[in-house]
Amino acid sequence: MTNQPTASVPFQRPWHDYLKFSTDHKVIGIQYLLMSFCFFLVAGLLAMIIRAELLTPQLDVVDRSLYNGLFTLHGTIMIFLWIFPANVGLANYLIPLMIGAKDVAFPVLNAIAFWLMPVVGVLLIGSFFLPTGAAQAGWWSYPPVSIQNPSGNFINGEFLWLLAVATSGVSSIMGGVNFVTTVWKLRAPGLTLLKMPVYVWTILSAQILQLFCLPALTGGAVMLLFDLSFGTTFFDPFNQGNPIIYQHLFWFYSHPAVYVMALPAFGVFSEILPVFARKPLFGYKTVAISSFLIAIQGTFVWVHHMFTSATPNWMRMFFMASTMLIAVPTGIKVLAWTATVWRGSLRLKTPMLFCLGGILMFLFAGITGIMLASAPFDLHVNNTYFVVGHFHYVVFGTVTMAIYGAIYFWFPKMTGRMYNEAWGKLHFALTFIGANLNFFPMHPIGLQGMLRRISSYDPEYTAWNVVASLGAFLLGMSTLPFIANMVASAFQGRRVGNNPWNSLGLEWTTPSPPPEENFEVIPTITVEPYGYDRPVDLTTEVTT
Ligand code: HEM
Ligand SMILES: [Cu+2]
């Protein structure tokens, strides 16, 4: 396992293989990553239009209903077509390699789950071109707004939105069954639960959580579709329906969804920090088990999104306490990461920078999260930009940063080549500065009372909005060095050996890129991961 450049890249596939149906988890993983990044660019473009509109207090770029469509689809595409599938792509690529398996448990199901996602994309983006325009009810699609259908057309933006969300739900359930079975059944001999890398723990926890909670949303979406299109009145308050029940069904999944998005990011931090600090992950077992605790606790907090939905006080108290309790296992992780880098010999390569930046922004998101968990505070800032600021520090500042870090870190494994470090650092600097300029101002203007989902605003909020918009445009530009770097390096980057980072992870013992079926002989695992303090190169102890 050295840094020797190799003469050729033996198992490299031609690029057009990634456009075809394949059941190899590595191909599917890269397909997910490529597809979701394209959707990230689309949703980012929608955000740029939103931010262009918000540069000035008055309405000047789009009209109000298009604005509604823009933020609805921005949020929906970012969640269902960027964060989720990008995480699934990484997990697809990494899980079999990390557990010493030849592939996932159900390769065909895996491929079908992937090919459903472009359908979701067509349904959502296509809805902009309908005469009714795209859905306008926000990414949570609350009734009664979402079931009004003023145009009277059977095919309308909301209709396609609901089909898209239900389809994406089916794909995610297939993925969940596949991941849980793979980790449970296909681990290499000796790889007990408490020897598994934290990333595998986070995927297992997130996918169990997903399987448990997702049916609530998929069921809620189908019922909403019936209310919208087939005359039922489950959620129609004017006909004995109850819109609050939809909110429960929605958030029973969509709060845990935050953990389905964030747990893999915690896994990525836990994999990358020890490599670049050359120290074992502090408190490995506690960090691993915390993933599961976060998933369990995450199931009991959803009503913190409904403090203002005529929720009785006893319920507010319960959910306030349960939400604050999540800070315990989450805090354990942050402490463990801090202790891991503490006095380590840090190598500040691009993946490490994205992790450190991501953890810093997560810390900030955690603080505003605890503030929001307090019902009396939330009653004031609910529906303001404070909330939008808080969750963008999670979904962008933490999860998107982690995905970027992961792509840089495993790029040499996926391609057998190295990315360009200077361009990577430029990308990090633009992203970190752009993200903070973009999302920090949302907190002060939120506290001052600026509502979310509005296209024109009181002029007193102008200054912070201009800063936020400039940050957003910087973020838009930050993707350019990334794209250039990835494309150029994938074809012409410096060739590297199997393990350029000197990592102890099992995936680095395979050739880069790994051959079909990954391992010639299934390895036997004898040691805990992250043994960076031991004198010998532990990859030799992972016997084959
Ligand atoms: C790329 C940079 C991004 C920018 C500039 C941006 C900007 C914005 C803005 C200005 C809004 C508020 C719209 C409003 O309330 O009027 C918004 C809403 C939202 N964003 Fe982002 N965002 C970005 C990335 C992301 C990411 C990565 C996610 C991942 C999940 C995301 C998810 C959402 C969601 C769920 C909403 C709420 C939509 C709604 O109100 O229904 N955003 N974004
Ligand atoms: Cu929540």
Describe the structure.
The protein is built from 15 helices and 2 strands. The chain has helices spanning 25-53, 64-99, 107-126, 157-185, 198-229, 243-277, 284-298, 313-325, 327-341, 350-373, 375-381, 385-415, 421-439, 442-448, 462-492; strands at 417-418, 494-495. A two-stranded antiparallel sheet has the order 1-2. Helix 2 (64-99) runs parallel beside helix 4. It is globular. Residues 1-7 and 538-544 have low confidence and may be disordered. The site of copper (II) ion has 4 residues, from helix 6. Residues 255, 258, 304-305 line the site of copper (II) ion (CU).
Show unreliable segments: 1-7, 538-544
Please provide the ordered H/E string of secondary-structure elements: HHHHHHHHHHHHEHHHE
How many strands appear in the DSSP assignment? 2
Q: What is the global morphology?
A: globular
Radius of gyration: 23 Å
- How large is the count of helical segments? 15
Main β-sheet, in a few words? Answer: 2 strands, antiparallel
> Based on the structure, what is the oligomeric state of the protein chains?
single chain
How much strand content do the residues show? under 5%
- Helical fraction: 55-70%
Average per-residue pLDDT, rounded, comes to: 94
Distance between the termini: 14 Å
Largest beta sheet: strand ordering:
1-2
Small-molecule binders here are: protoporphyrin IX containing FE, copper (II) ion
Structural class: mainly alpha
